[in-house]
């Protein structure tokens, strides 16, 4: 694979740094360009990739489209015609929209990453355009998988993904802040309370992913009869915490559809 990065901002840099670090693609096979050339120069220096003046100067058979959605149309129009794959991370742009704007012969894959990809802990989904092959899907999995979890799903589920893993980090930030507030109320210093709350979320998430045990069973394991944890859970239930999360995800998914997602 020869990877051309269009837009060396936060997501473009994070994906390429992850891909190079994991060995998915050698730095020598990556080139990057940006509307602001200094950004592409910094990207080239930090990653070891090659700086390109423009999209047509990229040496690539696979393009990673990492511009903002409103900049994507101009970028796609500058891709040279011929056999190539475009992997787009631009939120909300459907495969049909992308396919209508790429030159003949160019296949597309659409991804929905999330911000924790910036620290190598992303949760992303991707879907294939009409002409994209199984090998193209493997390429997307390799790149996205280098900065976290990556799953292939039908495009009709991309709004649901946006509501869950796209918007989800913000829901969890609110939860961490609120748990820390509880810690402060119980007497902890703020800085320690935030660290303890965040590490607790990280640890609980790792327990779910690494043990494969259902979260309900993990909850049962730590709620001793008449104990502290069941007292806290009863309070969460009283305040409708489950229903609040269910409504948050489904409302965010609905909003994604309203904004013109899949
Ligand atoms: N950040 C995230 O965690 C996240 C999560 C989910 C999805 N996404 C998606 O990822 C995409 C990128 O987000 P980001 O946060 O990485 O944005 P960003 O940091 O602003 O990066 C976008 C970069 O693309 C450059 N660019 C614009 N038009 C170009 C063109 N024609 N040719 C080459 N480069 C061009 C921009 O240059 P200028 O600065 O000069 O405009 C900018 O440096 C967005 O579509 C977003 O929806 C991001």
From TrEMBL:
EC identifiers of the protein: 1.5.1.2
Residue span(s) of domain Pyrroline-5-carboxylate reductase catalytic N-terminal: 2-92
Pathway: Amino-acid biosynthesis; L-proline biosynthesis; L-proline from L-glutamate 5-semialdehyde: step 1/1
Pfam family, one: P5CR_dimer
Reaction it catalyzes: L-proline + NAD(+) = (S)-1-pyrroline-5-carboxylate + NADH + 2 H(+); L-proline + NADP(+) = (S)-1-pyrroline-5-carboxylate + NADPH + 2 H(+)
Keywords: Amino-acid biosynthesis, Cytoplasm, NADP, Oxidoreductase, Proline biosynthesis
Molecular-function GO terms, alphabetical: pyrroline-5-carboxylate reductase activity
Family annotation (InterPro entries): 6-PGluconate_DH-like_C_sf, NAD(P)-bd_dom_sf, P5C_Rdtase_cat_N, P5CR-like_CS, P5CR_dimer, Pyrroline-COOH_reductase
Localization in the cell: Cytoplasm
Gene3D superfamilies: NAD(P)-binding Rossmann-like Domain, ProC C-terminal domain-like
Keyword Membrane included in the entry's annotation: no
Record-annotated Pyrroline-5-carboxylate reductase dimerisation domain positions: 155-259
PANTHER family in UniProt: PYRROLINE-5-CARBOXYLATE REDUCTASE, PYRROLINE-5-CARBOXYLATE REDUCTASE 3
Function field: Catalyzes the reduction of 1-pyrroline-5-carboxylate (PCA) to L-proline.
Family, similarity comment: Belongs to the pyrroline-5-carboxylate reductase family.
Name of the protein: Pyrroline-5-carboxylate reductase
Organism: Luteolibacter soli
Organism placement in taxonomy: Bacteria, Pseudomonadati, Verrucomicrobiota, Verrucomicrobiia, Verrucomicrobiales
